[in-house]
Amino acid sequence: MAESILITGGAGFIGRYVSRALLDRGDHVRVLDSFIEQVHADRGADGLDSEVEVVRGDVRDPDAVRRALKGVDKVVHLAAEVGVGQSMYAIDRYVSVNDHGTAVLFQQLIDQPVKRVVVASSMSVYGEGLYRDADGNLVEDAVRRPRSGPDAPWDPLDSKGRPLVPVPTPEWKRPSLASVYAIGKFVQERLTLTVSPTYGMEGVALRLWNVYGAGQALSNPYTGVLAIFAARLQNGQPPMIFEDGQQRRDFVHVEDAARAFVLALDRPQAAGGVYNIGSGVDRTVQEVAADLATAMGRTGIQPEIAGKTRAGDIRHNIPDITKAREELGYAAQHLDFTADLAELAEWVARQQARDRVSQARNELELRGLVA
Ligand code: UD1
After folding, report:
1. Is the distance from the beta carbon of residue 88 to the nearest atom of ligand 1 less than 6 Å?
2. What is the mean pLDDT of the chain?
3. Residue 240 CB–ligand 1 contact under 6 Å
4. For 154, which DSSP code?
5. CATH fold label, 4-130+168-366
6. Among 33-42, 64-73, 220-229, where is mean pLDDT lowest?
């Protein structure tokens, strides 16, 4: 049966794909979005499906949220500031939008409850992913210490100084909140799972890995690494790789992420659940830089390896997606990374990406947040 779904932050990168997926099956979609400049400089509301009902407003504005919730069956909560690096200096803004914004949403949900709220959480709540030490023991609380010198290893070490090896992280791993952004995502997740059942609603949290695809905000220098690299290459500039480029992530195509949201809205057994959402394949940042340069025909531009860490960054984090598979019926369908990067490159070639990356890096360096 068709439902009425509110997507907060629905004009953003992921929101547009979730909207499309829901419209395609006949749902009514309303979007609450404030169209902030850092994200929407290139297109504003352009390209939003014409059937989407748009409420312009900030998630922190109770009146806007009240209007947006009228007659809604379910909510997808995506409105958030998304830069891990930026969160370490724009602290009040990140806490305000991500933490307080979610509080305002739930305050309004008390008066206008819905059946289910699905929140976009993040793998960043884990901090470092799960590791295994040289003796085969799982290590949940890896942290990386400041490096002692230029030759010191980048990977977290065990108590005997041996490098730990990353393994897929399951949902039961204890959170370790390494950035203001991660703190906010955990708050959003916990508010959703704690408040929803109190008022007869169901809460679900998706811990997303690195989502990529056409439509990512290219001129936002605090967006995901693939969009940043694409904007740099498009402007003939070398991508800047933090650390040594061997840090591992899982890049999940935005259509797969959108499908996960639809499953999380639908599946009865998802109520109260937390799910990792990734592709199931991990890659190093250096590999993806090289693959993207190839896809964009810019192999002549060598990335610059910074040899420095961005404050708040973690070393390795790769997902165990077994629970999403078993309980949501989720499986990534985009598994041909080369083809998906080619599609991304083709889209990027049609865009005007303002390169604000150097400026963003200056902001971080000025504050001693790259070291
Ligand atoms: C990203 C998202 C976060 C999301 C999480 C899970 C951003 C900014 N962060 O965090 O919102 O919740 O995935 O989906 O979108 N890097 C470079 N050069 C750059 C930029 C980044 O080498 O110019 C490196 C980083 O140091 C890091 C890796 O690339 O090691 C990934 O960075 P990023 O794309 O910012 O993602 P996460 O921090 O993994």
Report:
1. no
2. 93
3. yes
4. S
5. Rossmann fold (3.40.50)
6. 33-42
